[in-house]
Specification:
By secondary structure, this protein is an alpha/beta fold. It has twelve helices and 18 strands. 54% of the residues are buried.
């Protein structure tokens, strides 16, 4: 591999408490040094990061790439291109593929697809139960040995709390992270929006925030009982933040993330019957949104994810409740994080940490930092570059986003993965 010098950039690396102008030196796919030039270092290529920010590549804890099984919606090729353009160098793939990631063979298939695409850091999440049916436990140890970084039942319910307890005991015995999206499906009752003003006004099936908080409380009790490491995915409500804060205060080994769009949109922003706003969990109240932001700022919520779910046009056609939920969100992850900084909800260091250091800690992987010896996963972005979400700038095969046509600030110019430039907006400058 070539030696790469990234120079003149503002380096922000929360894991190493670094925020200063300087250079990054890369050799053989790994970080060789930061700030200080190694003796005899002679670069093969130079990237001029003047007026740009250099930080670790982003780690996305929840994505769906629609392969294997639904390539009509998206492919590894299309979505990894979008991820690279968004500065994302590691993605966790939810297990609800077709077939489900409930055997080592399917986990190996995911890794093979990633290898063929040239984007190797797609980390499969194994199914908690066979076929995600919520009744029989999967072979979690075999899934871990096949490369799964965690287990989850995705958005599918577990049949009862005893099965969830046994699953958590099994996961704990093998030090496996359990990712849990709290949602009581019986209380949710196939709803499509938050139970509030919008659902009342338009007569839409609704989901109370209790569907989330009750499921969260039950899982917290079982986490204490079993000692299982639990990560709660895509929280959406104020009361969930409060319960999580209390659990952390008493020492439970729990963490949580929030989908980036939940930090910006509420039920008041929904354009009636526009299915681009159909998401799970639903957009809730402004109070919920502000609590999620506060939870992120004070560390109760550890990380931000895209919760990327690309869809084809057919999936979003029809009456609002009949459409499929989800937002295509890889390419808006960075600018929406920067918008939080502009709105003074968080600092830039907190935002970058929530996309790098914190998810790496949750997954217990040696990434998310510009530490000597770590893989050179790096994002170089211009925080002031303006662009618009439109067909000319969009790489994901899914165009289902409520931000279509909107103007953003913040755009990636280079993305490096394992020391390889996998995305360059303007090309690598000054080749040697």
């Amino acid at each position: 591999m070539s030696r790469i010098l990234i120079e003149n950039g503002r380096i922000i690396d929360p894991a190493n408490n670094l925020n200063r102008l300087g250079s990054v030196y890369i050799d053989d796919g790994k970080i060789l040094s930061v700030i200080y030039k190694p003796t005899g270092f002679d670069p093969d290529q130079i990237i001029d990061a003047r007026n740009q920010i250099v930080c670790p590549g982003f780690i996305d804890l929840s994505t769906r790439l629609r392969e294997p099984g639904q390539s009509r919606k998206a492919t590894f090729a299309s979505e990894t291109s979008a991820a690279a353009a968004g500065g994302i160098t590691t993605m966790c793939l939810q297990p609800d593929t077709i077939p489900v990631v409930d055997t080592p063979a399917v986990a190996e298939l995911v890794k093979d697809l990633a290898e063929k695409t040239g984007y190797r850091q797609i980390l499969p999440i194994g199914a908690l139960t066979q076929k995600l049916e919520g009744t029989e436990l999967s072979a979690m140890l075999a899934l871990k040995q096949a490369g799964c970084v965690a287990v989850s039942n995705a958005n599918q319910p577990v049949k009862n709390l005893l099965i969830l307890r046994r699953a958590m005991e099994y996961a704990a015995s093998h030090d496996l992270l359990l990712i849990y999206r709290p949602n009581d499906v019986w209380l949710a009752n196939n709803g499509c929006v938050h139970e509030g003003a919008l659902s009342t006004r338009y007569g839409l099936p609704s989901i109370p925030d209790a569907a989330e908080t009750i499921a969260l409380a039950q899982c917290l009790e079982l986490a204490e009982l079993t000692g299982c490491r639990v990560h709660f995915g895509q929280l959406s409500s104020r009361r969930s933040v409060i319960k999580l804060q209390q659990a952390k205060k008493y020492g439970l080994a729990v963490s949580a993330d929030v989908a980036i769009h939940q930090l910006h949109l509420t039920e008041e922003d929904i354009i009636p019957f526009d299915s681009a706003y159909h998401v799970q969990p639903p957009f809730r109240t402004n109070t919920d949104k502000e609590s999620l932001r506060e939870g992120l700022a004070n560390g109760t919520i550890d990380s931000i994810c895209s919760d990327h779910q690309p869809h084809d046009l057919d999936a979003k056609l029809g009456a609002f409740p009949e459409t499929e939920s989800g937002v295509s969100s890889l390419e808006t992850l960075l600018p929406l994080m920067l918008r939080l900084v502009t709105q003074q909800a968080i600092t830039l260091e907190q935002g970058i940490a929530a996309l790098t250091q914190k998810p790496a800690q949750i997954l217990q992987i040696d990434r998310g930092a510009l530490t000597s010896g770590f893989s050179a996963d790096i994002c170089i972005f211009d925080p002031d570059q303006e662009w618009q979400v439109n067909s000319g700038a969009w790489l994901s095969q899914g165009v289902n986003t409520p931000f279509w046509g909107q103007d953003f600030k913040g755009q990636v110019n280079h993305t490096l993965q394992n020391g390889m430039v996998i995305y360059s907006r303007q090309g690598v400058s000054k080749p040697i």
